[in-house]
Amino acid sequence: RAKDLGRARYHVFDPQMHQEAIKTLEIENDLRRAVERQEFIVYYQPIISLTTGQISGFEALIRWLHPTKGLIHPTDFIPVAEETGLINAINVWVLHSACRQLRIWQAHPVRTKNLTISVNLSAKLFLQSDFLVQIDKIIEQTQINPSSLELEITETVIMQNSNEIKTILQQLKERKIKLIMDDFGTGYSSLSYLHIFPFNALKIDKSFVNRMLDNQANMGLVPAMISIAASMGMAAIAEGVETEAQLEQLKSLKCDFAQGYLFSQPIPQHLVMDFITSKTQW
Ligand code: C2E
Ligand code: MG
Ligand code: MG
Ligand code: MG
């Protein structure tokens, strides 16, 4: 019987590897269905301007609402999505949802006209030949002002295919779309990239913000990154701000923006408007 045959074949493979292969395949099939049925939701985390003390915008962070496993975080499925190419459909879906949502929030009467939305994009999407067409379509469909859209990319995106990426980033800039280098300081940072690519802001990785007040050596890095940003005409955003002490330090270093659990965890879309109207000043 087929079942017996299948069992017999197990002995040929390393059972550990076999289990892992099955698991990846399971996630892959699961993900395919999730994309078809749109099982994803977007959470939003506020970004605070340290000059005004007000909410300047939100970062869109995807979650997978799995029918049996519950809420799954991006770190647990984005890598598989990248491997299988499903990431493109997912990225486009997030972009569209976030832009549509921003348009709704901006129309609200209370101080929301200038809100921005930041969306994380993977390298794969940037290198799709129809990427700019997709972006234009989303802007057209959702009627957002392109200057309120911010795209977050990591250093690895740039490393992969720098000439092509440079052209695309330039075309995004012409559309007034903002570009943020995410997780700055991790990965294969090369400062020479910064003047080749037209970034509007550097987002200092939370690992540096986290250890900022531990000791003198760690303290040195955050001010250095903030002054690199300033000297190149880019804004500095600190991510992972969890304590008042970190916030005070960042303010005194003239960091422009901050986000983190101190202000709010990422929240589901239906709670955003309440958040905006109840907490407006830090
Ligand atoms: P990221 O863009 O660097 O996002 C920041 C992550 O830090 C988020 O995790 C956020 O929930 C978490 N975080 C925010 N504030 C704090 C804090 O104060 N303390 C700590 N410890 N963590 C904080 P999340 O939502 O699990 O996202 C993880 C990563 O997944 C993101 O890192 C981003 O690279 C990726 N990701 C999220 N959404 C998308 C998406 O729509 N598309 C793609 N391609 N990647 C995404
Ligand atoms: Mg990000
Ligand atoms: Mg980040
Ligand atoms: Mg990060």
Description:
The chain is an alpha/beta fold and 282 residues long. The chain has helices spanning 2-10, 15-37, 78-84, 87-106, 123-126, 131-142, 155-160, 162-174, 192-196, 206-211, 216-231, 244-252, 272-278, and strands at residues 40-49, 55-66, 70-72, 116-120, 149-153, 178-184, 201-204, 235-238, 257-258, 267-268. It has an eight-stranded mixed beta barrel with strand order 1-2-4-5-6-7-8-9. The protein is globular and about 55 Å long. The protein starts with a helix and ends with a helix. The structure holds ligand C2E and magnesium ion (MG) (3 copies). Residues 183, 205-206, 239 line the site of one magnesium ion (MG).
**What kind of sheet is the major sheet?**
8 strands, mixed, barrel
Strand order of the largest sheet: 1-2-4-5-6-7-8-9
Order of helices and strands: HHEEEHHEHHEHHEHEHHEHEEH
C-alpha geometry: globular
Bound ions, cofactors and other small molecules, one mention each: ligand C2E, magnesium ion
Derived structural class: alpha/beta
Strand content: 15-25%
Q: How widely separated are the two ends? A: 68 Å
Low-confidence stretches: 1-6
**CA-based gyration radius:** 21 Å
Summed over residues and divided by their number, the pLDDT gives a mean of 90
Instruction: Please count the helical segments.
Output: 13
Count of beta strands:
10
Question: Helix share of residues?
Answer: 40-55%
